[in-house]
């Protein structure tokens, strides 16, 4: 029985980083908000660096609810896409090469998205992580939590359902 030697870890990490970069930069609104994604293995953390333009109520000051909702939704979409692409990225086959080159499958489309504003978002960096509850052929379900200084004290959370793109296209 022939044993296939595993790829060097640097090659796998480079492929993961290239795929994440292509995925994130395929959404112009992510760049508009300044959202960044940090990867540790298969786990993604979204970071929305603070900008004055994100303030909705200057009297408090507090992050705008729309910016918070968009941050949560973008985190959910990228998290769901990342989970659905993970096996292709890890195998390193022809699909992984296309992903690295920026030829990504379409992104999931939002069916519904419910945001719970738990407390005011302070004028500082925000972080979020998506937990994919279901990623099937037809739809996906994702829960997202956003926090600032203390992960145990989220300032917003959301649950969304998404229509998964057809893999036949």
Write up this protein:
- It is a single chain.
- This protein has a six-stranded antiparallel sheet with strand order 1-2-6-7-8-5. A two-stranded antiparallel sheet has the order 3-4.
- Helix 3 runs antiparallel to helix 4.
- A hairpin with a 3-residue loop joins strand 6 and strand 7.
- It is elongated.
- It is built from four helices and eight strands.
- It has helices spanning 9-24, 28-33, 65-91, 94-100; strands spanning 36-40, 43-48, 55-57, 62-63, 109-117, 126-135, 139-147, 156-163.
- By secondary structure, the chain is of the alpha+beta class.
Key terms for this structure?
169 residues; alpha+beta; six-stranded antiparallel sheet; two-stranded antiparallel sheet; elongated
